[in-house]
Amino acid sequence: MNSTFLKLKYIFALGIVLGLFTACSTDDDSTSSGTDVNTTSRWITVAGARMGENPGDGNGGTLLYSVSKEDAQNPNFSIAPFDNGFIAPSNRTARLQSSEDGNTIFNISYAGDTGGNFTKYTVEGGQNFTPTGSQISIAPYVGTAPRWIKLFDGDQTGAAVYVSTENEFDANGNYTRTEATIGVVTLDLQNSLINNFQEHSVPLSAQEEAAGYYISRIDMPVLNAAGDKLYIGARLSKLNPATAESDSNYPVLGSKTIVLDYPSLLNPSVISSTVGHGNTNGYRSINAFLYNGSVYQANQGDPQGSHILKIDSNNQYDDTYDFNLDDALGVTDAYILAWRPAGNGKAVIAYRHAGSVEGAAGAQGFLALADLNTKTAQKIDAIPYHQDFYLFQYQGFVVDGTDVYVTQAPVGQNGNIYIIDTESGVVTKGAELINVEGSHFIGTF
Q1: Residue 13, Cβ density class (10 Å: 0-12 exposed, 13-18 middle, ≥19 buried)
Q2: pLDDT tens digit string along 192-241?
Q3: Which long-range contacts (CB under 8 A, 24 or more apart) does 191-199 make?
Q4: 70 three-class SS
Q5: Are the beta carbons of 304 and 331 closer than 8 angstroms?
Q6: 370 with 308: CB under 8 angstroms?
Q7: Which CATH number do you get for residue 230?
Q8: 280-307, pLDDT tens digit by residue?
Q9: What is the DSSP letter of 83?
Q10: How far apart are CA 111 and CA 2, in angstroms?
């Protein structure tokens, strides 16, 4: 199995991990994972990604600064993580997660000599994050540039994944299929231990494989309501069977998810949607959430615009649930960049669409308020937009009761925290965010 690691063509990992936050005006502590934590006061951690070589690339490192909820809500309060924030250990943009109470930050370094190292910190306010527990490396399992996620199981478990691919040919040298081998590791966040690791071949149907389709990337694991299945989002790619060269113009198949038994990580299977098409692996933000007994999952690259898909307790897609963001928002080519529901089924969605202009770092982003129950959504007009408002790398939303905290700032420009009351739709302007040239904010935790 170790030889497989050396052949990795794609390494990916997931994690629900992090809310890097500290608090209190200038020096305090807090974090948030992804579930509702309706506390009287808590820390809100702001994360910023510093420019490397190009505006908005985020390759210059990740900085964290935590403030109290009250200061985060205060438009007269300023937060400047690029000047005095905590540098999250990572060669590039950190992949962070936070505990549900906001008091612990979990980090796995991304790339470089320390890539794959797991560390956790007690949030102590401002730029103060104190290392706690032991440090371990998951690099032998998922490589040195993992994306990982924290499962919604009370801060107990993290999960990281990768996929490697190898083309297969018959005796005459003709392409037959592409073998996709996935690896999944689960991590005990409390005791800094490896729980389990399994590796599997995950084929598609014979017809799909003969046409050159294969799983090329996986990410964003989430547990079902029963806690006995792990769903892993997948991206499909395609080769031209006649040449074994990459094919870029092909019919997009129904969205797919890999299902494993949990916690054993055995018995892989693949489920498919007939409603949504395109990928379910997301990017840097959690892409699937448990709500009301079902898992709701965003897809990307759908020819009909991004959908929110539903996987029911039978571990199959509910193809009677049709929530198309194009239809809901009255746009074309909607693409969900990141999203987060509150416990009431209302969700804040970061997205772009065919009307997005090209800014300093990429396509302009927008925010919408959606309702999973009514399958409706509307753009949040109370938040200011700018062509350099870049959300492709957005990672974190703090959910506090029915409130969702987001950051708004164009690349290289100042902005603010905004608090969205998902129940009423009221949006409140919060603390000022102080930016520096070429850098951007990647969320709250």
Answers
A1: buried
A2: 999 999 999 999 999 999 999 999 999 999 999 999 999 999 999 999 99
A3: 191/133, 192/118, 192/120, 192/133, 192/134, 192/135, 192/136, 193/136, 194/136, 194/138, 194/141, 195/157, 195/263, 196/263, 196/264, 196/265, 197/141, 197/265, 198/260, 198/264, 198/265, 198/266, 199/1, 199/4
A4: helix
A5: no
A6: yes
A7: 2.130.10.10
A8: 999 999 999 999 999 999 999 999 999 9
A9: H
A10: 19
The pairing of strands 78-79 and 427-433 is parallel
pLDDT in tens, 65-77: 999 999 999 999 9
Residue 133's domain spans which residues?
2-444
Structural domain count of the chain: 1
Residue 207 has phi, psi (to 5 degrees) of: -65, -45
Could you give the C-alpha distances from 108 to 56, 76, 94, 136, in angstroms and in order? 21, 34, 7, 9
B/e letters for 217-249, b = 16+ CB within 10 Å, e = fewer, are bbbbbbbbeeeebbbbbbbbbbbebeebeebee
Tokens of 196: 């389990």
Question: Cβ atoms within 10 A of the Cβ of 264, count?
Answer: 11
Contact 404, 398 (CB under 8 A): yes
Q: Identify which of 409, 302, 420 has the alpha carbon closest to the alpha carbon of residue 368.
A: 420
